[in-house]
Amino acid sequence: MSGELTGKKVAIIAADGFEEVELTEPRSALQKAGATVHVVGLKPGTVRGYRHLEPGESIEVDVPLTAGRADDYDALFIPGGLYNPNALRSDQGMIDFVTHFFRSGKPVGSICHGPQVLISAGLASGRTMTGWKAIQVDLKNAGAIVRDEAVVVDGNLVTSRNPGDLEQMCPRLVEVFATGSGVD
Hints:
With 184 residues, the chain is α/β, with parallel strands linked by helices. It has a single domain (9-176), classed as Rossmann fold, CATH 3.40.50.880. It contains six helices and 13 strands. The strands form three sheets. The protein has an eight-stranded mixed beta sheet with strand order 6-3-1-7-8-12-11-13, with helices on both faces. A three-stranded mixed beta sheet has the order 2-4-5. The longest helix has 14 residues, at 166-179. The radius of gyration is 14 Å and the shape is globular. It starts with 8 loop residues before the first strand and ends with a strand.
């Protein structure tokens, strides 16, 4: 994996309540592949992760949304968690940030509850995706073609169901972020 993403910049968007491992493991895989990875948050400071329902590690926000420009990044990753997607999808600036990646054809990855952000941005319709079991019906209702699989790749979009799928998702994420697309 080393070097595949050298020279690439990846934004990971996060708010308080992200599932800790769904941010830290993909970030580590992307960095090991050579990417520069920035956590983009709704505000400066830190965001608090969770380990299921227990408070977890706080992560430093590298770039607050007000200072972040989607044009500065080659790819986007959206972790899940119960609260993270709700905060992200409730902010129009963040919806605009996410939408930029789709309009520009840049690769996007998301796991667990993270695809809820894509639903709110109107970006799920017609895409083949997966997510946490409880949101699969939401994806379907938003017009997505839903597959209950560990990793689903639809062109430049990589989605995954839960932390148990990270071992399979991270290599595919690196692959799609390196090439700009993939096929399942």
